[in-house]
Amino acid sequence: MKCPFCGNDDTRVIDSRPADDNTSIRRRRLCDSCKKRFTTYEKVETIPLVVIKKDDSREQYDRSKIEAGVLRACHKRPVSINQINQLVDEVETELFNREEKEIPTSLIGEVVMDKLKDLEAVAYVRFASVYREFKDVNTFMNELKKILDR
Q: Which of 24, 130, 136, 150 pairs as cysteine with 19 (C-beta 3.0–4.6 A)?
């Protein structure tokens, strides 16, 4: 591993432990040249996932798009960034556990909504209103009634 400070190739691991999310390894490293310490994270390499969009075009899976949608839905709501990261981790785990190479955006949206429903009701309705493209107040009210009936 190359040192981010001096660029030297001779670094060594001085501590290794599971990261907070338990899906990666956190390693503390020491540069043999400049003696500075830095942290790296090691994750399991997964099968590349391709997302099938509504117009049948395909693009590489991008975690940041899910994060951005959930962040917008949770804007000014009592949801911490840790809860959002955990939700996105759970969505990712569920998607990758399917072991499919291509996955439609409709499935991703449903998984996100399912997780948001349990996390925060207002964030769920915000996400659903964009995802399901509510056309009028009646469709919005029908979704609200479903939440209230739960």
A: 24
